[in-house]
Design brief:
703 residues, alpha/beta, Rossmann fold, eight-stranded parallel β-barrel, seven-stranded parallel beta sheet, elongated, binds flavin mononucleotide, binds iron/sulfur cluster
């Protein structure tokens, strides 16, 4: 069974929750999300928080950067207009050397006016009266202030060190340096206060410096070893901020990792090295200690986005296929928040793990609130894809065409282009950048499909056709013909680059016999064009060696069937699911088979078998997909002149001259492409399951 989000209805999701035997409920009303949250000195207008999503969109002021840039303003204005009650502004650096990249926000005297303006403009755009909190951070081992890694580490964590070639001689940061950070955090908090923020978050999560300290069991000195020592710096910072800003209305919050999930190291929230589930003993103690210092809001998170992102943000598609069902990952986040909330009722726990639930996220979130399992619900990726989701929660009408589809493209952009936005739903702002960053390549690992209609730019208004094996011969002719018909074209091939492509076609390197490659293909197509209307299953291989049926090897059988049959079947299944979920009516799935589907060639039996079976695949899909408005056809070429038949040209010249087919000529790739073009047109609206022979009449039995 697929691990992707493929629930058509809420009932499907509920059934899967049941199948996984986990305690998640779905509310029928979203009222709980609209309830104000009462802090000691503030009322947050509703229970929905926009989680911090770091952009890297700072602009330069003088020689240093760090002030909010146009994309920063845009992000928070959209979220504010979207009605979120709590806006938790992304990681802002407290110092130069602790910046995660040169474009990270950095609060200092020079950038203060920019932050003032950010608060003001966010409030102006707001439909509710949101509380705005700034996340203060030192990036620690992920510091990259000049664009080059410049790690500042509190201890050696071998599995994380290895990622950035940190060897055991690399120095760990001194106690003096750490002590000096207290003043830096305080200074940053005071500037945030001056800028008009309602509060600050002393961030200790995601592998950054304050978080790393929480697990420094082997570190010597004041900040390592015991729980008291490991949490000392964080708590000192909180105390000092409170002392420096005595105004009780100024909120001190914190975002903490409550489970590090490191495969070998003894991270925070782990009973032992490599523990696979949280042990909240220490996170509970830390939360209590913070609450005792007046911290009211505690946002929880897990994992390390640089190392094990599937723990941090359950996804369908990411840098690697998630080793667990994302439902289980989301559940871990939600359940652990509930456990912490129940252990420290005085804290207002802001939960996470909801974006993966897409249009059903409000159902899950409202149930969590109803059951008191968190005080607030936070959305991360969903704020990029659907910044006004709260407004729609309030009306009870979630627009499934705007939800996040957990494709990780925003994270890739953040990593490789230094900004983060939704490539799929905010295409106007981010799609071109994504295309420029990843020209004509798949850079992503696993699948996200089931994207309902996305906001439509010029390309997404056009229909999109995928042609597998489209770099030459019949496939290329089909691609050129459909391109001339006005479709967006996606072509697959095995090579890194394609030699000749129709203008504006997307090339995706893809071996369709591989599950991951098929899933990449679908995801990449959706990211570029937003939709798939037509799939032409053209890719096929002949046996590497023609051998007599009695000598055919299993390897050759598997190879040919894996590409010609299995690949085509499962790609069609994937695309069909996308079409159904995206409400693509009038879709087409076309199989390019061969006269070999019924003509015996005993020296390439595996090829004949694959094409005969493909014919049944056509019939099955035609039958199943008729009710979904998807038309399925098979085009059966005869002897077609391509470079694949060049080696046997002489043989076929002779056979054709002798009357192999009533029409005595070679078929051309354009003959096949012309038929495909017509099958894609509306005129075939009442047909499905047909086989169209393009063989010069070869199929006619003759005497
Ligand atoms: C591109 C990107 C940037 C993020 N930036 C931050 C950040 O600045 N601070 C932070 O605490 N979390 C950050 N996160 C984590 C999110 O706040 C959130 O915890 C995560 O996406 C899971 O929530 P979701 O399932 O709703 O997306 C970021 C996540 C992504 C994908
Ligand atoms: S790019 Fe958009 S759809 Fe994909 S994970 Fe990010 S927010 Fe979600």
């Amino acid at each position: 069974m697929s691990n992707n989000f493929n629930y058509k209805t809420l009932q499907d999701l509920q059934q899967d929750i049941k199948n996984h035997n986990i305690a998640l409920n779905c509310a029928t009303s979203f009222d709980a999300l609209q309830k104000p949250v009462q802090l000691k000195n503030h009322a947050i207008p509703n229970s929905v928080c926009a989680h911090p999503m770091e952009g890297g969109d700072a602009i330069s002021i003088g020689i240093k950067s760090g002030a909010p840039g146009p994309l920063t303003f845009r992000k928070y204005q959209r979220v504010a207009a979207g009605g979120f009650g709590l806006i938790w502004v992304e990681a802002v650096s407290i110092c130069d050397e602790g910046r995660s990249n040169p474009g990270q926000l950095w609060i200092n005297e020079q950038t203060l006016p920019g932050f003032k303006e950010l608060v003001q403009k966010t409030h102006e755009a707001a439909t509710a009266k949101p509380i705005i909190v700034m996340q203060l951070n030192h990036s620690g081992r992920y510091s990259k202030p000049q664009g080059k890694h410049a790690p500042i580490i509190a201890s050696h964590i071998p599995e994380l060190d290895a990622r950035f070639n940190i060897d055991e001689t690399y120095p760990i940061v001194t106690d003096e340096y750490l002590q000096g950070l207290v003043a830096q955090f305080v200074k940053a908090a005071k500037l945030a206060y001056e800028a008009g923020f309602d509060g600050v978050d002393v961030k200790a999560c995601h592998g950054y410096l304050l978080h790393e300290l929480l697990s420094c069991r082997t570190r010597q000195g004041e900040y390592g070893g015991s729980f008291t020592n490991r949490t000392k710096l964080m708590l000192q910072i909180i105390d000092e901020i409170r002392a420096a800003i005595p105004n009780p209305k100024f909120i001190i919050a914190s975002r903490i990792n409550i489970f590090d999930a490191l495969p070998q190291y003894h991270g925070f929230g782990m009973a032992s090295p490599g523990a696979t589930e949280p042990d909240l003993t220490e996170p509970i103690e830390l939360t209590k200690a913070m609450v005792a210092r007046g911290v009211e809001l505690v946002s929880i998170t897990m994992g390390n986005p640089y190392f094990i992102p599937h723990i941090n943000r359950p996804y369908d598609l990411g840098a690697y296929p998630p080793p667990e069902h994302p439902l289980l990952g989301a559940y871990r986040l939600i359940k652990s928040a509930a456990d912490l909330q129940s252990a420290v009722p005085a804290a207002k726990i802001v939960g996470v793990g909801y974006s993966w639930f897409r249009r059903f996220s409000p159902h899950i979130a409202a149930a969590v609130l109803e059951e008191g399992k968190a005080a607030m619900i936070g959305f991360g990726r969903q704020i990029l894809s659907y910044p006004d989701i709260y407004n729609d929660i309030a009306t009870g009408q979630i627009d499934s065409s705007r939800v996040c589809v957990s494709c990780s493209k925003c994270s890739f952009l953040k990593r490789d282009a230094g900004t983060c936005g939704c490539v799929v739903r905010d295409a106007e702002a981010y799609l071109q950048l994504y295309r420029d960053t990843y020209p004509r390549h798949c850079h992503v690992g696993d699948a996200a499909f089931g994207v309902p209609q996305i906001e439509r730019d010029a390309n997404t208004m056009k229909k999109t056709a995928i042609i597998t094996g489209g770099t030459r011969g019949i496939g290329l002719a089909i691609a050129q013909t459909l391109s001339a018909e006005g479709y967006n074209i996606v072509i697959t091939g095995r090579g890194k680059e394609a030699q000749s492509l129709p203008a504006n076609a997307l090339y995706v390197q893809s071996d369709i016999s591989q599950k991951q490659a098929r899933e990449n293909l679908v995801t990449e197509t959706i990211a570029h064009f937003g939709r798939i209307d037509i799939l032409i299953n053209n890719a096929g291989v002949a046996p590497a060696n023609r051998t007599d049926l009695l000598e055919m090897t299993e390897e050759s059988f598997d190879h040919v069937l894996n590409v010609n049959l299995k690949g085509a079947f499962f790609l069609s299944q994937l695309v069909a699911n996308h079409m159904v979920q995206a409400n693509i009516t009038d879709g087409r799935i076309i199989f390019i088979s061969s006269i070999s589907a019924y003509t015996s060639s005993t020296n390439r039996g595996e090829y004949c078998i694959s094409k005969a079976a493909l014919s049944m695949v056509r019939a099955l899909f035609a039958d199943r997909l008729a009710e979904e408005g998807i038309h399925v056809f098979e085009v059966r070429p005869g002897v077609i002149q391509t470079d694949m038949t060049a080696g046997v040209a002489e043989k076929y010249d002779k056979l054709i001259a002798e009357g192999l087919s009533p029409i005595k000529r070679w078929g051309k790739p354009e003959d096949v492409a012309g038929v495909v073009k017509l099958l894609c047109r509306d005129e075939f609206a009442f047909s499905t399951g047909d086989v169209i022979n393009v063989d010069g009449g070869f199929h006619i039995r003759r005497l």
